[in-house]
């Protein structure tokens, strides 16, 4: 082992293609959402170079960015960019580096910079350079170098990743922290970590305690600035932990040089290599200026994380790649916006295809897990609840909740949609457990089976059900179970210890907790007596202090505090048991005890010393989550309080009655007797039970689940019962749905020995439960009423004569006269291949339809169907169509739903058309990885949480702004956003369709309506790059502008055919600098266009002012690669046709002298190679009026 090689390889991979794409976005203007280069922009040289500079330096250069490495150590010692000779710090070993904080048992903590001792060139071409810095670990180096195999790599821009490996038999070691550090040039003075958390920052000198520029505070990281160089910081507190962020939100952060207008950004496209799940908090950027990429640390968790790697434990992990991005623009706002745009691109590119390590699986080598998450809490609802926005993830196998302290493997997390539907993509091969938790419900979920991912495999776990821990009904509750203390009272800071960034932040009031010293505010509010909370009177938002802390007694001492919860019970069951449930969001050396009534009595619960997350001191609102159940005997109850603690955050408290009745909790009921008392029903001789008014036997007359549970209780408890007869006395129109639900529930409670009969005089809807002669299992037989249904000629069916759908039907058009529920038989057909529902009538799809399975259905057309309860049934309908290939949705009305998801992995064609109602859908998601064709016409949704169009070939997009959004957009234009003097300003966003538009990036053929161009302009944070796009059609009218086109066209590098349906747009006669028509200052984006064929469709004459002609001439003058121009007129032998032809011949200068053109009307076609003479080549028959139009789109 002494001579074993540790592959400490710091490999830089420079991909020229990647770098070129990056450089193309360094200089952006506001008018086109950071989409076009400025005139002074310097382009990449076209060749990537690698050279040795003396014995100790290696330089990689592409003409824009120059990166220098120390050799053979592999430290990044210089990054030359724009006006910076070096964007990094002056100290050569304090610039850009990896480090690992480690120690062996009983030894002091050390930091290893992972420096190499040998340099190698692995590969070098004009587009790709791969270099390596490595070292060999010897047993003699034990105690000085961390015992790891290390392979560090990077790509220009700069991408960086490392492969760390510990072999079996190597010394036991603790590694508490792994990270990348960049110490920047002091000219970087503005820090941004989110839209709201950004500001000019103090300098490292301002934190100097020895020179009395700052005063120390309770711990070394926090100082109060008393004599800063910039007086605006005087009296403020600075602490790097103020800028921490949860992993799920920590995607991009960094620094800006206000002087040089250059940004330096750390972008993390994936969390798979991070530790402890999506809520783990980590450092970002802080005073230095310093930018970090944190992979492992004890922050906000402590040693509850197992960071010990034993001698007999082999381990290997890939950290990264992460991406350091540099950009340049005229303002901090533009630089931040561009950094976010680049982050979105990196996220969409994950996993990267350039990584060469065998330890990094590419996209096709990874797998997918999907399903739907439900919650069943019978004390909230008898029906399953959607796991709305649940966190669902894969992590190393362990106990439920173990993911929050797991740090040695990989984790893959996603957020379910409003219906609990989730998809976890790009999962590395391996064995995992599936974990979940959802806000509003306590506890953790773990799927009962292991998940094994193999390359290319998709695993559908189907519907999974979480039952939160319940012992009884909740009597009272403080707070809400969301794993943070954010809902409780957060005080104002001490005025002498505030940080202005988090003071009265109206954009993000939840950041109030990030102020320093809030733990001492408890002493100011409760100087002598501790907190008393009265259930039913107090408000936890105002009266419950967010951390339970000790009282500052002065002289550096603190006293334990005792908080009281005062409540009353109408009837205490002295012989029964109650449960006090306590959820802690964080704890630091806390010793929490619970007592009943008497402060000096013996605790009924003593938690012991817990917690090392230090979340309170580090300005966190949570650390590690812990849940405790405390049994309380009824004989102890008069009131409740607890106390004796150090520090902890409370997530919530519940007090539960373990002995409640089915309805009221009374202690004298046959329904569910109290604990330990036998039911009187168990000795009952009754053989026949009749319920005369079934539907009114409980206070929950509209909840058939509860009523069926009660009948089930009778059947299961009464040993001699032979027959149950339930009589309905309800009108058909009002209670059909209740009756239907009752039958579904009764099917579940049927027993082997009891016959159940359901009778109603008013409707032909009866059921009988009987014992089968050949089986011990009872069956439930339904005789259902008929529905008023019209059948289409293709189906030849009438449900008036049939109790079920005939087996031979494969094609069905179903129309209903009015809002009746659809018959259930339709949705369990084994033969249907095509189904059309609605056709303009308001057909109702009940939310209670659960069993949907159409195994052969390939085409589904839904027109004006009303899906109840915000589209619950829509998700169930789609999930029951395993081979669906084509879906048409017309006037769905989902603008009133909280969420809509089209999630069908087999779908190939999708058409969505919704009328122009003045509403924006709340949330629309698409998970259609096989989709090839899309038509989508609707108002933009308020959010697109998931968009998966990975196979999309052709898309016709008709998105539009609502009236309110259009008014806001018009106002921003009138306010000067589009005048030339405001060209550097950023456009005001009136909506956000960024995620949807980026989801279209793989498309090859794209049609954009005129209204969609406005969506690009006002509702897209950055312009997507369409690398595969070869044909683009733009619809134009005089109500919509072309402001987004100068950014869009350069982002279509392989575009071959450009089609305009009309040339007149909102500012044709005055677009000036904000349009691709004729920009007077900046170079036209057309000059770099790859378009070879330009087609223009004109449905009217060229106007008298000749604007269309002027525009066509501008295209010819600016598009250097144009080979063909085709102009289509929807008129016959009009002088405009010949006028245009003559003018085209007389153009003095064109960018592509070999461009051929055609002018076509319904019965005439003229063609020529400019500037030659015209020739008549084609004449269409007069009766083929629109054949020219069809030809135009081919």
Report on the architecture of this protein.
The protein is mainly beta. Among the domains are: 9-348, Distorted Sandwich (Beta-galactosidase, Chain A, domain 5), CATH 2.70.98; 363-466, Immunoglobulin-like (Sandwich); 473-657, Galactose-binding domain-like (Jelly Rolls), CATH 2.60.120; 680-783. The strands form 13 sheets. The protein has a 16-stranded mixed sheet. A ten-stranded mixed sheet has the order 8-9-1-10-11-25-20-19-13-14. A hairpin with a 6-residue loop joins strand 49 (766-771) and strand 50 (778-783). Helix 5 (704-717) packs parallel to helix 6 (732-749). It is globular, with a radius of gyration of 35 Å. The chain starts with 8 loop residues before the first strand and ends with a helix. The N terminus and C terminus are likely disordered.
**Class per helix and strand makeup:** mainly beta
Uncertain residue segments: 1-45, 639-645, 658-668, 672-677, 697-702, 730-752, 761-804, 974-985, 1069-1075, 1078-1082, 1167-1194
Per CATH, which architecture of the domain at 9-348? Answer: Distorted Sandwich
What is the rounded Rg? 35 Å
Count of beta strands: 71
What's the end-to-end separation, in Å? 68 Å
Q: Just give the CATH class of the domain at 9-348.
A: Mainly Beta
What is the count of helical runs? 14
CATH topology of the domain at 9-348: Beta-galactosidase, Chain A, domain 5
Helix content: 10-25%
Outline the biggest β-sheet: 16 strands, mixed
Based on Cα principal axes, name the global outline: globular
Average pLDDT number: 77
What order do the strands of the largest sheet run in, or round the barrel if closed? 51-52-53-55-57-59-61-63-64-65-66-67-68-69-70-71
Which range does the strand content fall in? Answer: 25-35%
């Amino acid at each position: 082992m002494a001579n074993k090689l540790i592959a400490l390889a710091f490999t830089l991979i420079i991909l020229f293609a990647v770098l070129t794409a990056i450089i193309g976005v360094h200089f952006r203007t506001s008018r086109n959402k950071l989409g076009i280069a400025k005139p002074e922009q310097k382009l990449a040289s076209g060749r990537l170079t690698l050279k040795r500079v003396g014995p100790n330096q290696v330089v990689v250069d592409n003409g824009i960015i120059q990166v220098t490495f120390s050799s053979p150590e592999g430290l990044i010692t210089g990054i030359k960019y724009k006006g910076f000779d070096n964007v990094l710090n002056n100290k050569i070993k304090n610039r850009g580096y990896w480090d690992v904080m480690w120690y062996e048992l009983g030894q002091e903590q050390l930091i290893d910079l992972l420096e190499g001792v040998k340099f190698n060139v692995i590969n070098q071409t004009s587009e790709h350079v791969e270099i390596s810095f490595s070292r060999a670990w010897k047993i003699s180096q034990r105690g000085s170098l961390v015992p790891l195999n290390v392979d560090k790599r990077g790509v220009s821009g700069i991408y960086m990743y490392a492969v760390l490996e510990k072999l079996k038999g190597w010394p036991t070691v603790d590694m508490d922290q792994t990270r990348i550090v960049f110490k920047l040039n002091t000219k970087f003075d503005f820090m941004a970590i989110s839209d709201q958390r950004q500001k000019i920052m103090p300098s490292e000198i301002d934190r100097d305690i020895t020179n009395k520029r700052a005063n120390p505070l309770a711990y070394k990281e926090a100082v109060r600035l008393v004599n800063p160089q910039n007086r605006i910081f005087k009296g403020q507190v600075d602490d790097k932990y103020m800028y921490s962020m949860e992993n799920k939100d920590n995607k991009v952060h960094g620094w800006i040089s206000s002087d040089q207008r250059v940004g330096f950004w750390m972008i993390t496209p994936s969390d798979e290599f991070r530790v402890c799940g999506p809520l783990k908090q980590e450092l970002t950027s802080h005073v230095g200026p310093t930018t970090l990429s944190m992979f492992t640390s004890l922050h906000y968790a402590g040693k509850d994380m197992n960071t010990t790697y034993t001698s007999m434990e082999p381990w290997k992990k890939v950290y990264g790649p992460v991406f350091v991005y540099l950009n340049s623009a005229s303002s901090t706002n533009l630089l931040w916006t561009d950094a976010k745009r680049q982050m979105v691109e990196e996220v969409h590119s994950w996993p990267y295809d350039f990584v060469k390590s065998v330890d990094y699986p590419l996209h096709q080598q990874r797998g997918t897990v999907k399903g739907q998450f439900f919650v069943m809490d019978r004390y909230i609802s008898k029906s399953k609840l959607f796991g709305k926005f649940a966190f669902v993830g894969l992590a190393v196998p362990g106990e439920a909740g173990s993911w929050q302290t797991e740090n040695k493997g990989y984790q893959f997390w996603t957020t379910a949609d409003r219906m609990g539907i989730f998809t976890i993509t790009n999962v590395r091969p391996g064995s995992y457990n599936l974990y979940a938790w959802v806000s509003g419900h306590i506890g953790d979920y773990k799927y009962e089976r292991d998940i094994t991912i193999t390359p290319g495999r998709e695993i559908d776990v189907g519907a999974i059900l979480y039952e939160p821990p319940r012992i009884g009904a909740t009597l009272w509750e403080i707070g809400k179970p969301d794993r943070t203390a954010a809902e409780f009272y957060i005080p104002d800071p001490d005025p002498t210890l505030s940080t202005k960034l988090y003071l009265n932040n109206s954009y993000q009031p939840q950041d109030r907790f990030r102020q320093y010293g809030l733990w001492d505010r408890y002493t100011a509010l409760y100087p002598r007596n501790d907190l008393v909370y009265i259930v039913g009177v107090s408000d936890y938002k105002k009266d419950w202090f967010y951390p339970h802390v000790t009282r500052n007694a002065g002289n550096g001492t603190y006293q334990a505090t005792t908080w009281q919860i005062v409540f009353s019970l109408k009837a205490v069951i002295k012989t029964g048991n109650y449960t006090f449930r306590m959820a802690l969001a964080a704890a630091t050396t806390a010793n929490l005890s619970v007592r009943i009534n008497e402060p000096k009595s013996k605790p009924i619960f003593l938690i012991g010393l817990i917690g090392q997350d230090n979340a309170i001191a580090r300005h966190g609102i949570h650390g590690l989550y812990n849940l405790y159940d405390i049994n309380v005997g009824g004989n102890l109850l008069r009131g409740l309080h607890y106390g004796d603690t150090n520090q902890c955050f409370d997530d919530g408290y519940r007090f539960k009655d373990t002995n409640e009745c089915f309805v009221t909790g009374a202690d004298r009921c046959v329904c569910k007797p109290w604990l330990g008392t036998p039911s009187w029903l168990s000795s009952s001789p009754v053989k026949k039970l009749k319920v005369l008014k079934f539907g009114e036997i409980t206070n929950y007359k509209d909840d058939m689940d509860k009523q069926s549970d009660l009948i089930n209780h009778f059947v299961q408890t009464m040993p001699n019962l032979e027959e149950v007869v339930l009589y309905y006395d309800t009108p058909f129109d009002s209670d059909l749905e209740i009756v239907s639900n009752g039958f579904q529930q009764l099917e579940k409670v049927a027993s082997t020995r009891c016959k159940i009969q359901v009778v109603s005089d008013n409707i032909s809807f009866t059921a009988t439960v009987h014992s089968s002669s050949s089986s011990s299992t009872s069956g439930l037989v339904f005789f259902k009423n008929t529905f008023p249904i019209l059948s289409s000629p293709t189906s030849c069916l009438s449900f008036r004569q049939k109790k079920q759908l005939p087996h031979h039907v494969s094609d069905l058009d179903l129309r209903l006269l009015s809002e009746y529920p659809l018959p259930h038989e339709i949705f369990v057909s084994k033969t249907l291949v095509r189904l059309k529902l609605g056709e303009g009538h308001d057909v109702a799809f009940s939310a209670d339809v659960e069993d949907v399975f159409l195994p052969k259905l390939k085409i589904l057309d839904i027109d004006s169907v009303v899906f109840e309860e915000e589209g619950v049934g829509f998700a169930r309908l789609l999930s029951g169509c395993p081979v669906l290939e084509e879906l048409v949705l017309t006037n769905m009305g989902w603008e009133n739903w909280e969420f809509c998801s089209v999630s069908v992995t087999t779908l190939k064609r999708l058409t969505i058309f919704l009328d122009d109602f003045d509403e924006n859908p709340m949330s629309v998601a698409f998970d259609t990885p096989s989709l090839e064709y899309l038509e989508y016409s609707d108002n933009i949704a308020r959010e697109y949480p998931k968009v998966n169009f990975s196979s999309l070939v052709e898309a016709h997009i008709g998105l539009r702004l609502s009236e309110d959004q259009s008014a806001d957009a018009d106002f921003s234009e009138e306010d000067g956003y589009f005048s030339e003097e405001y060209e550097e300003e950023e456009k005001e966003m009136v909506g956000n369709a960024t995620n949807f538009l980026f989801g279209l990036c793989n498309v090859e053929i794209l049609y954009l309506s005129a209204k969609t161009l406005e969506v690009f302009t006002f509702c897209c944070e950055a312009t997507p790059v369409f690398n595969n796009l070869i044909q683009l059609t733009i619809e134009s009218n005089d109500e919509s502008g072309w402001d987004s086109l100068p950014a869009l066209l350069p982002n279509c590098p392989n575009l071959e055919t450009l089609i305009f349906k009309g040339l007149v747009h909102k500012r044709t006669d005055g677009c000036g600098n904000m349009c691709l028509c004729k920009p007077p200052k900046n170079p036209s984006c057309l000059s770099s266009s790859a378009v070879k064929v330009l087609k223009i469709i004109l449905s009217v004459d060229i106007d008298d002012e000749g604007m269309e002609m002027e525009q066509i001439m501008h295209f010819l003058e600016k598009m250097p690669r144009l080979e063909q121009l085709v102009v289509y007129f929807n008129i016959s032998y009009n002088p405009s046709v010949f006028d245009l032809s003559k003018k085209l011949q007389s153009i003095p200068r064109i960018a592509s002298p070999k461009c051929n053109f055609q002018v076509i009307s319904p019965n005439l076609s003229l063609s020529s190679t400019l500037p030659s003479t015209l020739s008549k080549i084609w004449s269409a028959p007069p009766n083929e009026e629109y054949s020219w139009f069809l030809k135009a789109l081919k």
